[in-house]
């Protein structure tokens, strides 16, 4: 009954997470625009298919599946093939222009959860990515309701027996964890992707902020986005990095 | 009639608190996401059972009891056994999806207090943990009502003759003590758990901000979360730590 | 008709205040949670009784009298005895759970002032402490009304011929003086109690921000809370302290 | 028709203001609590009487005239005598507890202006001080109306042919000039009184921020409050002060 | 059809603006209280009359024309004479106490534009100054409407064939450009007047932030207000200034 | 199906963008007032015509086409000629004074998209610039609706088969990416134009914050606005620049 970890297959990540993502739970991935949230969410499914033969479901709340397919092709990931092999399924949960529920303010969360469960059952999926909740959040005007709905999503995913990633938007690198100041408390696990501007240069880091009930490495670790492989985490911390380089001299 | 202390059993904490938590009172534990609030709240009950044979009641406002059971198993704490031995009881005070009171905005606090008292009487419990009030707070829209309700909870716990912990959420390490800027004034005792990011590294500290009517050590003390033992407070301050290490050289 | 000072009897305070608190007036004592507002407010009455034989009235807006009695016993102050000797009287002005006026938003200030006057007359009290107005403030939603009510309290106390202390809550050590940004302007005298965190250590200081119509020492002075004596002000400023210590070398 | 200056008689002030306050106009004096706004406003009238034989009218919006009389007695200024000699008149414009207009939100500004004019005519007053507008401001909920009312006051004073001071409240030493961010634009002249806390010491400075249509010294100048004389401006800037002291060495 | 520049005649300004203000367009001049907005706006008309024989219209939204006449007399500018020579016309667009439109919230912008056009035609004016829009802004509660009205004013002025200055209020030297965060985007040209406090000294600078469609010098340039001449821009940047002075040594 | 790049023709930009703007997609260009958003948006079309013979459509939401024509003439770009050659078309989407929809709050986005499509088809345009959405944004009061509308625009442009630029307003150089904190998440690509004030000098930089699905250079690169050529990006980063210059010495 101990908390197991699911190997993500993302290079270097298993090391900093002491074995991967907490199995059967949802992990919140918070980051600013362009911080690689979608790449992480997709790569999580990609490596599941390639390394472990595990099918995955990708729920998109704004970007069109076709755009994601094309964006990920840059890394050589041919999602379309996997879709044909029933290893990957998209759920397009974006509001369409014709859709008026957005104005009424009531997003049909129950319907969405049913669609996810359906796909999960159909593909016998083990991994689910939801990207990004920012696009449906501002529909729930009351913070209490929002918090409960968020909890409801991760509870439902737990019941489905999948390991999930849910991305969330931040507007600054070192302020609030996520947009509404409650997401990080509801989530069992929180990872932060940063893209810090210092001296006119950008530097990407990943940090595991919390993993409820299990251990992990602390602090920020640098990562790069490799055109061939996607995210590669460098499993020594930035400070060790500096010390190393100064040692070598 | 002087204020006694209740030994928590958490390593190092008795030292910095001059003997433990003020007996028969409620202590607010404020911290950011992942700062170890839940670990502290659980360990308080665990050590009560293991070291002092005192039963405890754990009130959860969002996480499911089953998740807490599993999370704490990582430290080797088999809550389920204690539940069977009537040494531990969970009160699940989380709003359920089907529950509509959350929308109406009226949380039945009276009902909750009755359930707590019931469990306390039944187990002859000496310790109670409430984790975390953040999940029910935003229901009370008026700050005046919120403040009174908070006061009402700690008064009721005082009447029950238990020593209690109530966790509260913060969104930054060095800003307001708690979310609404009033919690720390209502509480008799306040402890802050920090998880500070400096130079891309995280560092955990615990500080007793106030203990009404009794003495305690001042300032921040480092602590670690040991995979076998849970929280271990290092009873010398960070500054002494630095001085020591520079002395050793 | 010049402004006289009332000796508080708090060690070191007479020195920094050039003789004590302005007689027959109300002094606002603002501080964060745990900054020793209540200790100051109580000790003001205690020393009045012990050193000058002057009776005092303690108005509490949230904490129960019984909790204050017990908290102060830690310093060896047996309030209960003084109550029996008619030297000390508590006025419990806290809203009780059953009390609905809090919801209606109309606190009966007139009634409270009458109760205070009654107690003052009965005990021939010379000193009054009100602790802390934070608990009743948020009832007055309009800042204009709040300001007038605050002014009304201190006018009424002036009429009663007592020297009073009124505590107010701050949420940060170096931002606004008090919660609503108007308290410090209404008050004739303002003292700030600080509990500053620097380099993970806490340091307590007291500063007289203003005394209308009379002189006082400027700047922050360190103080400690002695388990036997309560507040002890160290009547040289922190800067002189440093200079001294560097002189001694 | 050039803008003349009225000698205030405050030591050192004539120097930094190139001759005094712009005659026949209103000068806004903004400062935090205890920054000496009231002392300045009173001393302006005092020196008018003592040095120039000019009568003055003091309008108080919150403090009772009797408190001001007493507060100023500390400097040896016996206002009461001047009142008897018809050299000084108080206008008590504070809302009284029984006064309900405060709730209705409509302060009778027209009535106030008439009372001021009356007193000015009666005493043939040349100087008027209004202290402080903070106490009546929050009655005007609309910023547009507030701005117009402020303008209306200073227009009316201009018509009366007096030189006036109007004090305004600030909540921080180096943020917005005044509470609502518009006062400083409406006023013809703005002076800032500061009481800065640096390294736990307080330091008082006065700065002429603007004098429409006439010259003045720029930057902050230190001042002290002398128990015998009131405000004494040191007419060299703080920087020169430092240079001097380092030259002397 | 290229954008021409209109020589302002303000000493040094032609140099930093590469020839003057963009002809036939409106330039927004933003500055804090006392930053010399009104002096600039007036001097722009003054030099037009004196150096180029061009008539000007001065629209005032709060200060009375008579006050402006007097204020500018300090620089030896006898506006009244020019008014008689039909070289200068005031449009007093300030809301009068008796005027109720301010409460209704609907300022008659169309009427104002008609009055300006009338005066422009009558005087064959080439220059118009509007000082300052801050006084009428808060009447338009909706930001969208405000933005459109602002655009409408500058469009109308363009149609009249004049080169115009419109002053706007800022509350801090280095924060938002103007009060509402949209003014600087609507305007074709933006100039910032600063009056920076550093080390207790004030320093005035002027910066051309943008000139749509034409070149200008970048960065801040120091200026002084000369009692005889008004604004004098020092056409080397502050940094060069420092370098020079350190070269000279 | 990989993401291609469209050469902009802007000097130096192809280098930092690894080949130009992502083809067939919309890129958000965010910048403060005067940061060169309009110059960039126009130059994108200009170089398309001059270097690649590709027609372009310029949608303006506030500035009049005639003003843009004139502003760009400064760089020697004779838009009018291109308009006659059917290489350039303006769509004037600015609200006119007579237009009341702005008050009603419902901007006819569908109508606008139809007009754009019309022009695109007519000119066989490959490039579209929308400048700037700030002028119509505040019409949509609900952030959810705003976000969907933004998404709808870029979806529609994708369908038209054009590569587009959409400019957005920022009020500070290093705070939120764009005004409402959601624009940067909706957009596929984000570029930031900065105009930073340091030591009283301005310095322009361009940064590609994100390009979904494709690579680009990271960090800020300096650029200048050349009176003859418009924007010229200097394709080495500012830091390399400094290192170079210090190497040369
Ligand atoms: N094929 C690629 N090769 C190299 N880098 C790439 C590639 N694809 C994407 N990137 C990098 O990844 C970034 C985008 O990452 P991603 O879309 O995952 O960010 P995000 O956090 O999801 O952003 P948003 O909030 O906008 O959805 C790009 O800006 C680019 O720097
Ligand atoms: N078995 C374990 N071994 C080591 N570390 C653990 C273990 N379990 C938990 N932790 C650490 O404790 C952290 C979680 O602590 P906890 O859940 O008490 O935080 P919290 O303050 O309650 O957070 P939240 O606000 O999310 O409820 C984890 O992020 C992890 O770093
Ligand atoms: N008997 C005692 N011995 C030593 N220190 C004590 C004793 N009693 C109280 N203290 C110290 O005084 C602090 C509490 O002071 P006090 O209750 O006056 O603060 P406060 O400003 O009134 O706080 P609050 O806003 O919570 O009411 C305690 O946190 C403790 O550090
Ligand atoms: N007789 C005196 N001798 C010495 N200093 C005095 C004397 N009277 C007042 N002061 C000083 O002046 C300060 C009060 O100044 P004053 O009342 O003018 O301030 P203020 O700006 O009007 O404050 P508020 O906003 O509270 O009205 C006191 O705090 C004290 O430091
Ligand atoms: N005759 C003069 N001689 C010297 N300096 C003067 C003269 N007239 C004005 N000044 C200077 O100009 C400043 C006022 O400038 P001005 O009135 O143009 O400012 P402003 O930006 O319009 O302010 P506001 O926002 O209050 O209208 C004065 O504070 C003073 O320092
Ligand atoms: N012909 C030119 N020669 C040199 N520089 C020019 C020329 N035209 C414009 N500029 C520069 O470009 C700046 C304006 O750029 P642009 O209008 O593109 O800014 P923007 O970001 O669109 O601003 P806004 O938000 O006000 O629309 C001018 O302030 C000027 O510095
Ligand atoms: Mg994404
Ligand atoms: Mg927890
Ligand atoms: Mg207290
Ligand atoms: Mg005062
Ligand atoms: Mg002005
Ligand atoms: Mg533009």
Folded structure, characterized:
6 copies of one chain form a homohexamer. The first copy, chain A, has 249 residues and is of the alpha/beta class. Helices cover 36% and strands 26% of the residues of chain A. Chain A has 10 helices and 11 strands. The first copy, chain A, has helices at 13-16, 37-52, 65-73, 79-84, 101-104, 109-123, 134-137, 143-159, 183-186, 238-248; strands spanning 5-6, 21-22, 26-31, 56-60, 88-92, 127-131, 163-169, 189-198, 201-211, 220-226, 230-233. In chain A, strands 5-4-6-7-3-8-9-10-11 form a 9-stranded mixed beta sheet, sandwiched between helices. The model of chain A is unreliable at 100-105 (pLDDT under 50). The complex binds adenosine-5'-triphosphate (6 copies) and magnesium ion (MG) (6 copies).
Taken from the alpha-carbon principal axes, the silhouette of chain A is globular
How many individual β-strands of chain A? 11
* Rg of chain A, nearest Å: 18 Å
Largest interface: A-B, 38 and 36 residues
Secondary-structure-based class of chain A equals alpha/beta
Listed once per kind, the bound small molecules are: adenosine-5'-triphosphate, magnesium ion
The termini of chain A sit apart by 49 Å
Output mean pLDDT of chain A: 89
Largest beta-sheet details of chain A: 9 strands, mixed
- Helical content of chain A stands at 25-40%
Order of H and E elements of chain A: EHEEHEHHEHHEHHEHEEEEH
Strand order of the largest sheet of chain A: 5-4-6-7-3-8-9-10-11
- What is the percentage of strand-forming residues of chain A? 25-35%
